[in-house]
UniProtKB/TrEMBL annotation:
InterPro entries: Ankyrin_rpt, Ankyrin_rpt-contain_sf. Keywords: ANK repeat, Repeat. SUPFAM superfamilies: Ankyrin repeat. Transmembrane segments: none annotated. SMART domains: ANK (SM00248). ANK repeats lie at residues 72-104, 172-204. This is Ankyrin. It comes from the Eukaryota. Gene3D superfamilies: Ankyrin repeat-containing domain.
Length: 248
């Protein structure tokens, strides 16, 4: 259930800013233009390009929590993070927006946080700013998993540099290591291993996925890094035989 709609007192805005708000969405020029302050705020952020002056003005005059949701359930910081607008993200963070609140984009449960929103667009500067602002690094599980799966080396490197756990499971129970192996991202796989990705039960899954997909370089790297001989090579070889991957 969304936050209660609060009247948006447009008369408190400077006329220049008011005119610019009125031009954001012409089809919504009702007497009050927006259902609430939050609706106007998010609409200004969604606009391409975002009007930084309007956003700053609304931040200064908000009478409600900056982390409130608009009538569509969206939060300003998640919208700005998904758009990759570093200036807007900076304004929102300085105005007290919480890095660790959830948005409504992307996943089946309808929720993800600002980190995930920025990663989906590969907005590295936004990711850095969110991390520098002190976001809970434990909230980056899905972000690290997505970046590993999609081959976003710079994002993975950034998250790991800020001490994101290379062995953390995402909301679906997947590990970054398996995501990288399954999608043949050798450089990311090596990066994860260098940052302590462990030879846990999922390591076998990564090897099996690599065998199934015929990723010889991935298989070679995983075997080379298995210094203690903990890999279940029998299972992997069986998969290779079943998938006609005996060339590996």
């Amino acid at each position: 259930m969304h936050d209660e709609i609060v009247p948006f007192h447009l008369e408190r805005l400077p006329s220049e800013i008011l005119d610019r708000i009125s031009n954001l969405l012409p089809e919504r020029l009702a007497p009050l233009h927006y259902q609430s302050e939050v609706d106007a705020h998010v609409s200004a952020i969604e606009r391409e390009p975002a009007d930084v002056d309007v956003i700053s003005a609304i931040c200064e005059m908000l009478t409600i929590d900056i982390n409130s949701r608009d009538s569509q359930g969206q939060q300003a910081l998640c919208v700005a993070s998904e758009a990759g607008n570093v200036d807007v993200v900076r304004i929102l963070l300085n105005a007290g927006a919480s890095v660790d609140t959830d948005g409504v984009f992307g996943f089946e449960d309808g929720r993800n946080n600002a980190f995930d929103s920025a990663v989906m667009g590969r907005h590295i500067e936004v990711v850095k700013r969110l991390l520098d602002k002190g976001g809970d690094i434990r909230r980056t599980a899905m972000a690290l998993s997505m970046a590993s799966a999609w081959g976003f080396y710079d994002i993975v490197e950034c998250l790991l540099a800020h001490r994101s756990d290379a062995n953390i499971q995402d909301d679906d129970g997947d590990y970054p290591l398996t995501q990288a192996a399954t999608n043949a991202h050798l450089d990311i796989l090596r990066l994860l291993l260098d940052h302590g990705a462990d030879f846990n039960a999922d390591y076998d899954a990564a090897l099996v996925c690599a065998f199934m997909s015929g990723y010889k370089d991935i298989v070679t790297l995983l075997i080379e890094r298995d210094g203690n001989g903990r890999l279940n090579l029998d299972a992997a070889l069986l998969v290779a035989f079943e998938e006609s991957r005996m060339d590996i």
